[in-house]
Predict the structure.
Amino acid sequence: EAGEAEEAERAFTGAIEARPLEPDGPRMLAEERLRANHAAEAALLWRRVTRVRPLEPEGRLGEAKAWIAAGRPADARAPLDEILGGTWEPHFAPVREEAARLRGTLR
């Protein structure tokens, strides 16, 4: 199982290097890092997704969830507030709803 995780991480890292302007590599690696209990690393990868796709809120939501998983809810506030304060395409309404729910759980 550890070997499979390492192999997956190499594949995701390769995807990031091959296509640095595409969000799929950082997104997949962020999900893998979160599964491996490396939430802070996942948050930084989600931030990279946001840099690549600034007009889409999913990277911000992923970052916030990762900070919460890392036990750093204060760091989750900024990306959640960006989602809640932003103007997004209508199909991103579920992302906004989830951000509002998560923001309500933070002290």
